[in-house]
């Protein structure tokens, strides 16, 4: 449901290779047919190889309160163990890649840790299914298992600056993953992480998530938070945005259309925050804001769709000898032969010289390039991957 019919392992592997992503989470690994597809791949140290792409077993599950949890597992036998453990508490394990469980967060954690898995909240701040939509702390959700939750997934509407205003998160590793609905480059790895690993294995990923043995996350890359579709408090029907006090005064109902006013991530963080400004622990890596290359090209050339022939031609030219990630954040732009407007747009993103119209209520925000080329840059710049 809501996933391209091309979202199959060979297509994911092909898209990941062009994107420049070495390790991809499988998603949906408790679904019997999906697990059978993974089982056919050669396995080594808990990762499954297809061409040049390594897959690690993962699944997202929904608990009894609708909170979503992200799970990583070390091998297929542990996935089968978790299937068996969840079977008594779910009616759709064989029908839905993201199964619903009649268990709370703590009960799910019990079964995951028994299977030697890793677990943390998925898109933790999302107002419909994020942990912080229903709980004020990790301990409220996971109870005595909270100390074993080593990571949280930020989601499209939050970044490091948002999450590091909450004291309890200072010891956790942040993941800037995004779920993919298509293997195309503008959907796959819209957000990604760079990690320090010795090799491709589940053990190394586990060490990086726990920041042990010199392994760690070196860089988070993702959307501008305001671009997320739940960033601002807004009506879910007409998308008019409101302040937190206006939402309360209106009893959560939009006076224009009668729709529900949904609390946005920014206001939720403000309610939870222990600090007025972010307090980044020493282990926290930088966060780079970027959008997919095809979307940057479309903005630069004035096209509304990334599927326009001119956009796809330019994308193919830029990625013919480099991965998309290399083009976005590493390549020397003076060495690239492409429309100067595209190169200027990439540079604007690298330096943070873009404007964002905030999203909310279920509608994505919009990123805009400066109207006048050559304006003096007054924003603070972002560093590239070469700096880490």
CATH topology of the domain at 9-225: TIM Barrel
Note poorly predicted spans.
372-380, 383-388
CATH domain class name of the domain at 9-225: Alpha Beta
- Name the quaternary structure: single chain
| Rg computed from alpha carbons, rounded to a whole number of angstroms | 21 Å
Describe this structure in words.
The protein is globular, with a radius of gyration of 21 Å. The protein has helices spanning 9-19, 32-39, 76-87, 105-114, 131-134, 138-142, 160-163, 202-210, 244-249, 265-272, 293-301, 309-318, 324-329, 340-350, and strands spanning 23-25, 43-44, 47-50, 53-62, 68-73, 118-121, 151-153, 173-175, 192-196, 216-222, 234-235, 261-262, 287-289, 355-357, 366-368. A hairpin with a 2-residue loop joins strand 3 and strand 4 (53-62). The chain has 388 residues and is of the alpha+beta class.
Write the layout of secondary structure elements.
Layout: H1 9-19, E1 23-25, H2 32-39, E2 43-44, E3 47-50, E4 53-62, E5 68-73, H3 76-87, H4 105-114, E6 118-121, H5 131-134, H6 138-142, E7 151-153, H7 160-163, E8 173-175, E9 192-196, H8 202-210, E10 216-222, E11 234-235, H9 244-249, E12 261-262, H10 265-272, E13 287-289, H11 293-301, H12 309-318, H13 324-329, H14 340-350, E14 355-357, E15 366-368
Parallel strand pairs: 1-4, 7-8, 10-13
Antiparallel strand pairs: 2-3, 3-4, 4-5, 5-6, 9-10, 11-12, 14-15
Q: What would you say about this model in short?
A:
This protein is an alpha+beta fold. The chain has helices at residues 9-19, 32-39, 76-87, 105-114, 131-134, 138-142, 160-163, 202-210, 244-249, 265-272, 293-301, 309-318, 324-329, 340-350; strands at 23-25, 43-44, 47-50, 53-62, 68-73, 118-121, 151-153, 173-175, 192-196, 216-222, 234-235, 261-262, 287-289, 355-357, 366-368.
């Amino acid at each position: 449901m809501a996933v391209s019919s091309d979202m199959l392992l060979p297509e994911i592997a092909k898209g990941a290779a062009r994107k420049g992503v070495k390790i991809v989470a499988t998603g949906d690994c408790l679904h019997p047919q999906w697990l059978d597809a993974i089982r056919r791949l050669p396995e080594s140290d808990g990762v499954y190889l297809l061409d040049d792409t390594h897959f690690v077993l993962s699944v997202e599950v929904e608990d009894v309160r609708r909170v979503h949890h992200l799970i990583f597992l070390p091998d297929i036998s542990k996935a089968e163990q978790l299937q068996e453990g969840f079977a008594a508490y779910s009616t759709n394990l064989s029908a839905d890649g993201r199964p619903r469980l009649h268990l709370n967060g703590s009960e799910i954690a019990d079964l995951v840790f028994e299977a030697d898995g890793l677990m943390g909240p998925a898109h933790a701040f999302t107002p419909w299914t994020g942990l912080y939509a229903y709980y004020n702390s990790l301990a409220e959700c996971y109870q005595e298992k909270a100390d074993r939750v080593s990571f949280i997934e930020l989601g499209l509407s939050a970044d490091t600056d948002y999450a590091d205003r909450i004291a309890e998160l200072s010891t956790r590793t942040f993941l800037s993953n995004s779920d993919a609905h298509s293997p195309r480059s503008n959907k796959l790895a819209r957000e990604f992480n760079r990690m320090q690993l010795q090799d491709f294995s589940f053990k190394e990923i586990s060490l990086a998530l726990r920041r042990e043995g010199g392994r760690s996350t070196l860089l988070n890359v993702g959307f501008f938070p305001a671009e997320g579709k739940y960033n601002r408090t807004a009506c879910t029907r007409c998308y008019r945005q409101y302040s937190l006090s206006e939402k309360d005064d209106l009893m959560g109902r939009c006076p224009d259309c009668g729709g529900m006013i949904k609390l946005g991530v920014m206001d939720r963080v403000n309610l939870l925050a222990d600090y007025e400004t972010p307090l980044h622990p020493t282990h926290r890596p930088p966060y780079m804001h970027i959008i997919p290359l095809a979307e940057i090209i479309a903005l630069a050339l004035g096209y509304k769709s990334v599927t326009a022939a001119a956009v796809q031609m330019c994308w193919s030219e830029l990625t013919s000898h480099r991965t998309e990630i290399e083009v976005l954040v590493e390549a020397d732009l003076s060495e690239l032969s492409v429309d100067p407007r595209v190169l200027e747009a990439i540079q604007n993103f690298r330096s943070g010289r873009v404007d964002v119209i905030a999203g909310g209520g279920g509608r994505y925000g919009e990123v805009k390039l400066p109207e006048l080329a050559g304006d003096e840059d007054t924003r603070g710049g972002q560093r590239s991957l070469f700096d880490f």
